[in-house]
């Protein structure tokens, strides 16, 4: 199949070219996508402001600060932008994105942003928002994102899960590496993927109504008991490794569980394991139990193979 030359002109990929500016680069007016990832840009080329067909612009991993990005907020000709990536730059504030009414994906991860308040002017149509690896202290200015499906706020300084009530279409919530002490999904029931790894949780209560959950990541916390899981009938992946668990509980009715991560806990024995995982023992394909006392018992692997007849991986060993 022949490539249409016009199609090539619609996409400009300048990834990892180490450019300091775009002076020697042609920017055709019909461009729809520009990828400038991993360059050395400290300011934006004003010719971008004339690209009225532009839908996707990636400025990931450059040297742009707040002042350098500010012109974007006035470039009305590119107001039809659907995806804007400013990840891994030098931003301390969220730029005013109010002119971009059709924005679906907005990525300001890996910057130095301390507040989400600037998000109040971001498109109501937004479906994916990435603000991980910043210095954000509070979950706020999110209430208007009724269409949001993915929210990434990992590696910030958050202490409380809050202000999520109106995000009724949210399917993925990533909050790993924060300082959260308690789970509060604010009544949301459509979430399919939830990560609270590396926080300060001591309990997993608060998930009971999240019946759509398919993947749950709670590793590296201080959880002492498995509870509040029995209603999560769609759960396929459960990671509660590196906690303080001494037994396996509350998952006997889960019939879709395929991956179970229990390594680095305090589980003493494999006795009762078959009953504890009764609902999923036929379909479970991966289990991690290494660095528990029970992993030192004689014929540890053989006993797990009997409990889980279709197991494909035990710890790091592929069957």
Automatic annotation (TrEMBL):
Q: Would you tell me the Gene Ontology cellular component terms? A: cytoplasm
Classify the source by domain of life: Eukaryota
The keyword Lipid biosynthesis belongs to this UniProt entry's keyword annotation: no
Record-linked SUPFAM superfamilies: L domain-like (SSF52058)
Gene3D superfamilies for the chain: Ribonuclease Inhibitor
What Pfam families has UniProt attached to this entry? Answer: LRR_4
For this UniProt record, give its keywords in alphabetical order, as a comma-separated list: Leucine-rich repeat, Repeat
Do the record's keywords include Repeat? yes
Entry-linked PANTHER family: NISCHARIN RELATED, PROTEIN PHOSPHATASE 1 REGULATORY SUBUNIT 7-RELATED
Q: What is this protein's record name?
A: Protein phosphatase 1 regulatory subunit 7
């Amino acid at each position: 199949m022949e490539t249409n030359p016009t199609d090539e002109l619609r996409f400009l990929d300048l990834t990892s070219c180490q450019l300091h500016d775009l002076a020697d680069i042609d920017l055709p007016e019909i461009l729809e996508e520009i990828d400038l990832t991993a360059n050395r840009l400290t300011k934006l080329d004003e010719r971008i402001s004339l690209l009225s067909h532009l839908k996707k612009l990636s400025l990931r991993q450059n040297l742009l600060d707040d002042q350098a990005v500010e012109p974007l907020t006035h470039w009305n000709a590119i107001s039809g932008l659907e995806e804007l990536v400013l990840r891994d730059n030098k931003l301390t504030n969220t730029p005013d994105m109010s002119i971009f009414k059709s924005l679906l994906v907005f990525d300001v991860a890996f910057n130095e942003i301390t507040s989400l308040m600037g998000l109040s002017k971001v498109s109501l149509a937004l479906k994916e928002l990435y603000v991980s690896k910043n210095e954000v202290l509070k979950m706020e200015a999110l209430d208007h994102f009724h269409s949001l499906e993915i929210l990434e706020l990992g590696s910030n300084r958050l202490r409380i899960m809050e202000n999520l009530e109106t995000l009724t279409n949210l399917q993925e919530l990533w909050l790993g590496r924060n300082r959260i002490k308690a789970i509060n999904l604010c009544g949301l029931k459509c979430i399919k993927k939830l990560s609270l790894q590396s926080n300060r949780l001591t309990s997993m209560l608060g998930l009971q109504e999240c019946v759509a959950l398919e993947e749950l990541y709670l590793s590296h916390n201080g959880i002492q008991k498995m509870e509040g899981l029995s209603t999560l009938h769609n759960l396929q992946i459960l990671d509660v490794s590196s906690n303080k668990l001494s037994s396996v509980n509350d998952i006997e009715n889960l019939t879709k569980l395929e991956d179970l991560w229990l390594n680095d806990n305090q589980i003493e024995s494999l006795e009762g394991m078959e009953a504890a995982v009764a609902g999923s023992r036929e379909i479970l394909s991966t289990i991690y139990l290494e660095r528990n006392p029970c992993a030192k018992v004689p014929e540890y692997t053989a006993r797990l193979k009997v409990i889980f007849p279709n197991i494909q991986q035990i710890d790091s060993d592929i069957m």
